[in-house]
Amino acid sequence: MNAQLLLIQVFNGLVNGAFYALLSLGLAVIFGMLRIVNFAHGALYMLGAFGAFALSETLGLGFWPSLIVSPLIVGLIGVILERVLLRRLYGLDHSYNLLLTFGLTLLIQDLVKQVMLSQFAVSSAPYTPPEMLTGVVNLGFVVFPKYRLFVIALSLAVCLVTWYVIERTRVGAVVRAATENPTVTRSFGINVSAWVTAVFGVGVALAGLAGVLAAPIYSVDPYMGAELIITTFAVVVIGGMGSILGSVVVGFAVGVLTAVGAALYPPISNTLVFILMALVLLFRPSGLFGLPEGAR
């Protein structure tokens, strides 16, 4: 493989890594505070893409408004799900959360499939990026689609802002305090329940944002999140459950490694991330950026 093809694969990997980073970031935010694994995250990612498509088809809403509105709608749906369903399971075994969110995944996928068939007469549909992001950019060392560069840049910016808010602001301090010791946090007059709901809403809104960004690249399909979410869970485990920085760094790194690995040796493309996960679990069970259980 020559240098230019390798660079193209690296940039393609960064695009995939952008989606892994946003999705795993949402999962990490949710797990960090609620200690639940949201198996419906992939379906909510798909819902973000479908929301942008539906807003375009029914209201004529363009890409830029949809990039804001669709994630907000997905976040609101997440708030409702947390208030109505997930909250009832916090005191129970984690398997109940897994079963509920897995059931929600199947329900959301089938509902979107039925709506797409009945209202739009399609089982999957393309979604056009804005005209200003069409075409390619010559970076000097490689020519790459403008929209994909935008996806990389925006995803990185959102990930860095989220990390900064969680780690460096008073809002993040409240979230961390509510995570580590909710009883003491309540004694300071902080409504931990409201913060839990808000954090879940933000986490799934990040998934919705990733879905809107992915729609012009992968098209809108009811099952577009089913395969991606498995890799995303592997990314979260490699980075460390609940680690914001780990989710971002490992998300982009896994995207690049799998893309380059697929180019060098295609048969390994679908298994490389799971090989990495197995090695990390073998030598550092808490993840690359996670704290050992006794240090939490």
From TrEMBL:
Keywords: Amino-acid transport, Cell membrane, Membrane, Transmembrane, Transmembrane helix, Transport. One of its GO terms (cellular component) is plasma membrane. It comes from the Bacteria. GO terms for molecular function: transmembrane transporter activity. The chain crosses the membrane at residues 6-31, 43-61, 67-86, 98-122, 147-166, 194-217, 271-291. GO terms for biological process: amino acid transport. Signal peptide: none annotated. Belongs to the binding-protein-dependent transport system permease family. LivHM subfamily. This is Branched-chain amino acid ABC transporter permease. It comes from Deinococcus aquiradiocola.
